[in-house]
Amino acid sequence: MANILGVGNATLDIIHGVVSYPEEDNEVRAASKVCCSGGNCLNTLTVLKQLGHDCTFIGTLANDMDGTCLQQEIKIQGININHCPIISGKTPTSYILLSKDTGARTIVHYRDLPELSFEDFNHIDLSQFDWLHFEGRNLPEISKMLSFTRTEFPTLPCSIEIEKPRENIESLFSQADVLFFSQHYLTYLGCAHPEDFLNTLQGKFPHRQIDKICPWGDQGTYGMFSSGELFHEPAYVPRQIIDTLGAGDTFNAGYIHACLNKYSFPKRLHFACRIAGEKCGQKGLHSLTNII
Ligand code: FRU
Questions:
Q1: Which of 152, 130, 144 is nearest to 48 (CA)?
Q2: Do 113 and 89 form a contact (C-beta atoms < 8 A)?
Q3: How far from the centroid of its chain's Cα atoms is residue 98's Cα?
Q4: What's the first-to-final CA gap in the chain, in angstroms?
Q5: What φ, ψ does residue 117 adopt, rounded to 5°?
Q6: Residue 40, ligand 1, Cβ within 6 A
Q7: What is the distance between the alpha carbons of residues 149 and 242, in angstroms, rounded to a whole number?
Q8: Domain boundaries, the chain
Q9: Where does the secretion signal sit in this chain (predicted)?
């Protein structure tokens, strides 16, 4: 069991299950409603907690009613949020339609809350952690956090999720031990073949030991080990796709868990694909470890 710190954003997810995605200006009845904690980093910690790790989240939380509900949800899962600054403002929320037809999720996200500063992060004693996971956002603050960690705790492994294109996000790459790239990010770069992207990236940081991972939906995952070896792991397809919300976040948790357990690179990819696939075959992020 490891002690993991996740740095990112927490959201309140309000998920309505609908038979199929509605047309604009229609009124439809939802078959279910779930209100739960969300946000990429927090979702990753939710899965890591179930895999037996001690998890601490740091990110800003708001002092409104949604914030109280969100904090309760996080605490029930046993994730430590004692270091989170609670500030005045509105809790980031996601209104999500989950289509029974396809398992696809459509997210409308609202956020207007200042993000974590380096000063907030700097209050934490990092010596207690075995792994740090960052959402690649909130530059340049995240950049300062990573530089500080690299200087003060050079052997502490850091993973970064690169989900959306953001100004200067490439400046974070060399600071990571593991980089998770989304399909959305690569598509934005105009890259249709993850192998090309990974080869180019390897050429840029030939001397840094970085695992570079590109989950590619139902086409599986492409990964380049720090040594430059390229692997492809097919997607794990459950009997029925029920809910894809947080599948990428689950993948990241699976990969981090596999690293902490010192699995080989192909086995890490395999485990992450398997748990992400299992997640798509069930609702929500809970009880995942029962099937793995
Ligand atoms: C899923 C998710 C949701 C959240 C949204 C934020 O990956 O993290 O939990 O509402 O994305 O963009």
A1: 130
A2: yes
A3: 19
A4: 17
A5: -100, 165
A6: yes
A7: 39
A8: 3-9+40-88+114-290
A9: none
Give SS3 for 282: coil
Q: Which residues contact 103 (CB under 8 A, 6 or more apart)?
A: 240, 241, 242, 243, 244, 280
Q: Is 94 in the pocket of ligand 1 (CB under 6 A)?
A: yes
- What is the 15 CA–ligand 1 centroid distance (Å)? 11
- With a CB cutoff of 8 Å and minimum separation 6, the contacts of 60 are 9, 84, 85, 86, 87, 113, 114, 115, 116, 120
**Segment 6-34, tens digit of pLDDT:** 999 999 999 999 999 999 999 999 999 99
pLDDT tens digits for range 59-110? 999 999 999 999 999 999 999 999 999 999 999 999 999 999 888 899 999 9
Best of 43, 57, 113, 162 for a ligand 1 pocket test (most atoms within 8 Å of beta carbon):
43
Our answer on whether the CB atom of 38 is closer than 6 Å to any ligand 1 atom is yes
Atom of ligand 1 nearest to the CA of 105: 1
- Ligand 1 atom with the smallest distance to the CA of 248 is 7
Whole-prediction pTM: 0.96
Query: Which residue intervals of 85-237 are DSSP H helices?
Result: 118-122, 141-152, 183-188, 194-204
User: 96 alpha carbon to ligand 1 midpoint, in Å?
Assistant: 9
Four-point Cα dihedral 263, 265, 156, 57, nearest 10: -80
CATH superfamily of 3-9+40-88+114-290: Ribokinase (3.40.1190.20)
